[in-house]
Design a protein that fits this description.
Helix content is 63%, strand content 2%. It contains seven helices and two strands. The longest helix has 25 residues.
Amino acid sequence: MGGGVFWFNPGPWWLPPGSIGEELGWRGWLVRTWRDRPLTALALGAAAWAAFHVPIVVLQEPLHGFLPALSFLLSVAAGAAAFQALYLWSGSIWPPVIAHFSWNWWNPFFLGDPYGSALSLFGGQLWLINGEGLLGMLVNAAITLVLMLRWRALRKHESPRFHGGFVLS
C-alpha cells in the first residue's frame, strides 16, 4: 500500500496521477518546447489533448453517440488554450495542474459526470450542458479565440521581453 497522492493513481506506480501527468506532458513539455510559437503550441497541444481523451469516448457510454463524442472532444481541444495561457503567464506547471485538478473535481458535481453518467446539479442532457459538452465547447472556444487573437497580436510586436504570448516584467 502506497502513500500520499500516488495512492490515488489508477495507473502504474511510476506514472503521476491524472491532472499532474497530463499537465507535465501537455504544458510542461509540449507548450514549453513551443512557447515562442504559442499558436503552434496550441494547435499541437489541443490535438494531442483531444486524441488522449479518445479512449474515454470509446469506454464511457454517455459519450457513445456522435454528437456527445464530438462535443466532448472539441471541448477538450478548445480547453487547451486556457491551460496553456496559465502556463505561459506563470512560467510554472503548477497553475495548470491546480486548474485541471479543480476542473476534474467540480465539473462533474455542477455540470454532470461524462465519465460516470451522474446527473448535473442543474439537470438537462449531459452532452449539452456539461463543461466537456456543447456548452463547455462554446465557452472554451470563445476563450480560445480571445487568447489566439492576443497571441497573434503580441507576436507581431515581439520584443526581447516577450515570452510565449505574455510580456514579462
